[in-house]
């Protein structure tokens, strides 16, 4: 779950930082297209999937 949290934080910060591209005349579609080409954009999605899987599929320790 901590790996997922780290990925989600890294991806979320990247999404926010790259929002500065919008100030240079890019539109929302251009921003989403740019983020779809960057690996950091997928960290947020992957991290959220890891967190959800860690919650849904509990790990039985000691059994």
UniProtKB/TrEMBL annotation:
This is Uncharacterized protein. Keywords: Membrane, Transmembrane, Transmembrane helix. It comes from the Bacteria. The lineage of its organism: Bacteria, Bacillati, Bacillota, Bacilli, Bacillales. The keyword Transmembrane applies. The chain crosses the membrane at residues 12-34, 41-59.
């Amino acid at each position: 779950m901590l790996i997922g949290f780290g990925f989600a934080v890294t991806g979320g910060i990247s999404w926010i930082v790259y929002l500065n591209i919008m100030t240079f005349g890019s539109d929302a579609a251009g921003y989403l297209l740019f983020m779809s080409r960057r690996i950091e954009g997928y960290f947020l999605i992957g991290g959220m999937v890891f967190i959800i899987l860690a919650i849904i599929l509990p790990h039985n320790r000691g059994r």
